[in-house]
Amino acid sequence: MGWEGAGISIALGLVLASGFTHAVWNLFTKSSINKSAFLWAIHIGSFVLLLPYFIAELSEARIPLRGYAFMGLSMLFQCGYFLLLPLAYSKGDMSQVYPLMRGLGALLVPIAGVTIFGESLTLAGWIGIGCIVFGLLAIGGGSLSVTRLRHLWPAAAVGLCITGYVSTDKVVLEYISPLALIELCNIAYIGLMTPLALRKGRLRTEWKANRWRIVAGTFLSPGSYLLFLLAVKLAPLSHLAPIREMGTVFGTILGIFILKEQQGSRRIAMSVVITAGVVSVGLWGGS
In angstroms, rounded to a whole number, what is the distance separating the alpha carbons of residues 128 and 139? Predict the structure, then answer.
């Protein structure tokens, strides 16, 4: 396969599961009434449950200043992600916005893995990434008119935040466990979203309309990233990040068939291009 170690199959399974669960909770977010309240609600449960573990781990860990600096940087990127995500979904279809958000990360995260962490990709790997990015951008609309940019810039900004926190978290995992990192993300979310979520009965309204989706999202949102973090411990970031973008195929299909969004045939066709890129990275990307 090009990757060393017996955990590669496990890593691939974890990343594909991560992509699917990520797409599902984003579907729930897209269809929610107040997206800020929904996002707050699906993270408050894991925030409360993981807080004692987080405190205990940090009290015993010997983390240098560099580690805390990267932890703070990760929180900033996560805050940007969750501040911009509701705006992105308010301006476009899920089958359009979701691919753009993830597509930018599919391009930039492997570049960060190679340039910052010294990882490597073969020519086939880079061609695969090119296929992934082309397919994702084509699903998202492709053209760059002023009107389109006005509606899609939040999705691009989310993509930059994804690139930032995924690359930063690779370093943070040198100092804390994946569960502690999930709680670090939760702290950022809750601190940022609480004033927005609790304003004018938004949370009560959201709970009445989407209580079962909130319950499911409580497990799916942190769980999707936890699966990815566990996979990162088994294989290179530059290989895993593009494969996680299979979640974009799932998200596109969910947007078309569940939310009844348009341009289904073209976007599904581009999903085939994405799949070809995923196979190229997964089988021949390692040097």
Answer: 17
